[in-house]
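Sample intake sheet
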Amino acid sequence: MLTFNLGPLPLPIAYFLLLVALLVAAGVGRWVGRRQQTGVGNVLIDMLLAAMLVARIAFVAVWFDTYRSAPWSMLDLRDGGFIPWAGVLAALLLAIWRAWRRPLLRKPLTFGLLAGVLAGGGLFGAIRMMDNTALPSTSLTTLTGASTDLAALAQGKPMIVNLWATWCPPCRREMPVLAAAQKREGGMRFVFVNQGEDGATAQRYLAAAGLDLANVVMDRGAGMGREVGSGALPTTLFYDANGRLVDTHLGALSTASLEHKLNRLRAPAQPLAGTVPGGK
């Protein structure tokens, strides 16, 4: 499951879990500090802002050479470029500093954070247990009308599967980034799975945009989005050479955020359980 539908709006599951954790932390913190009339809501918001800022700065620092040619893109958080551990560290340091300055905050903040982590972590673990990380089996059609599927297209290589549509502005924005990566990364398979449209529509768009892409396939029923649990476009899935899902991205990819995720695929894939390395 990659998205959670909040009415008609698909919300990334990570954001949903973060929202749940914050609400639980705020509620428990308020209850624990009720006698001293001490809430932790403002501290939690400050922690979230600090985490986002530091995580983004850390990501930009790591990929600064990629951002150098377009400095303003450093401010575009839509590419999802964050270093999570840096953000978590910043949030914890801020919490410790606030608790040191205000002793009345220590107990409600500690209990609130523990409750939030348990709630968010528990839901995350339950969702991961239900997730299917195998290669989707949805039947696809090439632009020439032939039937195929992802297993046939992978050919034993790491694979990046992009779910897109011609009407989707973020899809169009990221397409040149993916097209350049496809030409550059000969050891990986890039597959562009159009959701809900026909081949003629896709071909007209690609020709008008001047995009020369390999492995463009059609999913007229948008079944792959349902199979992987995503109601958002674009969705990009990263599979290792064994066909296991190792990473995902919702929204438009930048050059930096794509490179960050491709690094996970460049590492040698671990053999599946029960197989012998080098065996037939």
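Comment: The CA atoms of residues 6 and 16 lie 9 Å apart. The chain is about 50% helix and 15% strand.
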